[in-house]
Amino acid sequence: MRRLRSVIGSLAITRSVVAYVFDSMTDHSLPSLPPRLRRPFHADPTRHALAHSTFALGSVERLDHPTRQRALGCLVGGAVGDALGAPFEFQPSGLYSETFPSPVHGGIGEMIGGGTFGWAPGEFTDDTQMALALACSVVESFGYDADHVWGSWRTWRRRASDVGITTSHALSFDDWREVEHQRIESTMANGALMRSFPLALATISLDDDIARDVVLHQASLTHHHPAAGWGAWIAVSAMRESIRGGDPWSTIDREVSLVPDELREEFSSVLSPTWTPAHDNRSNGNVWTCLGQAVWAVRQSTTYEEAVVAAIDLGGDTDTVACVAGALAGAIHGIQRIPSRWTTYLHGHVELATGRRTFTHADLLVLGHELLGLSLPDQAPGESPAGPMHVGDGVHAANLLGAATVPTHWGVVSLCRTEDFFGAHEARRQIYVVDKEGDRNAALDIAVCDAVRSIEAFRREGRPVVVHCHGGRSRTGLALKAWRMARTGCSERDAHIWLKERWPLYADYNRTFVDYLRQARFD
Ligand SMILES: [Mg+2]
Fold first, then answer.
1. Residues having C-beta closer than 5 Å to ion ligand 1
2. Residue 31 above 60 pLDDT?
3. For residue 36, what pLDDT band results from cuts at 50, 70 and 90?
4. How many angstroms separate the alpha carbon of residue 185 from the centre of ligand 1?
5. For the ranges 122-131, 176-185, 398-407, 477-486, which has the lowest average pLDDT?
6. CA of 473 to the centre of ligand 1 (A)
């Protein structure tokens, strides 16, 4: 387990220093800001004190399971929003809903890929790439090390297909201390906001003051306008509060009150509960509008799905707005409430010092644990293949290694980690379910309904379907019984008898699963 050597301790991160950090512009004109905000950034020795922070990642004792699942929801949710929005980048508003008037439960769902940069289906873009480079740096450095982050981003930039203008200019300098921006106004873009969401996990156990300093400092490396940093921090603070189970909206109000005077009115305006995107015709490539739109999308939605779709439907910088909205919505709703048809295909590539690394949905779960200071428990060794065995209407049961033998045209509904067994299966779903009792599944109903809906969608496409978990026992039984109940309207007891006659590995030792099914209604 990653454990930190010391708590921040001597780090001279105080409010006054933070204010000084944002005295970080070049001397080029910025008439709306007072002179103290135009001091040359690289000449500011105080700022350098913030450049290296060792801090404690997470805390096993203090993070209960629902909290962990909200944290994972934040990380995966941001990446999902980015990947789902990528095909619609620079397109007009409403195009997502025009393309998908209703949810696509079969096939590969709505993760179609494409867009300006030709993304693969489910591939995330520069937003998540930079976020993951930052996250890996934090894990590797046991905290925040500006020099290490800078090196990581410069390495990433060498092979990135899409790099924002402000970010690209800054990263052309060898040393972040030497960056000089031509126009300070150009750095109030959303490029620092978009990459900050992993810091909500990494700083979850830190006090606000310390977390704020880290977020503001990493933002300032590429974006010298203080609004870029404060926009990033306001978003991360709302995500942190959501992960902790608190109210993100009152947190936003509180943090806006701390914004430097000359910036506060703008943030107050776009983050007001009464603000809507119709109030603002500026590009959402700027930090104000991007943050305002993302917060609006989440605030007016009741589900993760609604929030991300609302964000993409605003058009313009759709991947970034949906990335920010997705991270916040994921922090509120948790990993199990993000549809599996979106998480399953999630992937991307990041150039790191150790080489090009591919991240899948499963890799993000591992990284999420590391950011929280946790280790994802190893999966038990594989058991002898069992199944696929037909249980009815084209649906089959199996354990992991049994399911791995099915032809690639089959639909695969997985309820455990799958390694790389199903990459060639186009129609697949990986659903997050933990085979433990109690609160280990924060949204069991959503996960089970996702499984049932996926099975039916694949069946309607004429595919044989295999449902499996690692051992083929408990989670497989949960999903197949739920599917039976949904199809026939039978009771849990009848579904139990039905499955016991058909699948010898079936087991119902998990009382939380049984209790859930006994009260569940599938319409
Ligand atoms: Mg992007």
1. 125-127, 319
2. no
3. very low
4. 21
5. 176-185
6. 41
CA 242 – CA 244 distance, rounded (Å): 5
Could you tell me the pTM of the whole model? 0.90
Q: 295 exposed, middle or buried (CB, 10 Å; 0-12, 13-18, 19+)? A: buried
What CATH number has the domain spanning 389-519?
3.90.190.10
Q: Residue 127 C-alpha to ligand 1 middle, in angstroms?
A: 5
CA-to-CA distance for 455 and 77, rounded, in angstroms?
A: 23
CA of 86 to the centre of ligand 1 (A): 7
Between CA 131 and CA 142 the distance in angstroms is 16
**Residue ranges per domain, the chain?**
9-50+65-182+205-371, 389-519
For tokens 């409010």, name the residue.
Answer: 15
**Residue reference for tokens 């990493």:** 218
Could you report the per-residue pLDDT of 446-494, keeping only the tens digit for each? 999 999 999 999 999 999 999 999 999 999 999 999 999 999 999 999 9
* Ligand 1 midpoint to CA 83 (Å): 9
Q: Quote the ligand 1 centre to 124 CA distance (angstroms).
A: 8
Q: Is the pLDDT of residue 33 over 50?
A: no
User: If residue 243 lies in a helix (H) or strand (E), which one and from where to where?
Assistant: helix 226-243
What tokens appear for 430 in the block? 């990986």
CATH number of 9-50+65-182+205-371: 1.10.4080.10
Helices (H), 416-520: 444-460, 474-488, 492-500, 511-519
For residue 347, how far is its CA from the centre of ligand 1 (angstroms)? 14
413 φ, ψ to 5°?
-110, 110
Tens-digit pLDDT profile for residues 274-292 = 999 998 888 888 999 999 9
